[in-house]
Prior knowledge:
Layout: E1 4-9, E2 16-21, H1 23-26, E3 44-45, E4 51-52, H2 54-65
Antiparallel strand pairs: 1-2, 3-4
Amino acid sequence: MSEQVTWRTSTGDGAQHAYLTPNVVDNPAPYARTLCGLDTARWLLTEDTALRCLACTFAARSADLN
């Protein structure tokens, strides 16, 4: 299964969040959660079926690398 992930600036917070296309962008309602406190973020349905904000995951990985 191959999804296309794009990065966009979300309205309101100016931070970049991951958008999974077309699933989440076309139909965000089933995926909407407030996992990182940002209502404007789109969410990525990961292969382990956990919903997480890819921006938070990316930030955590970047912190681990530094």
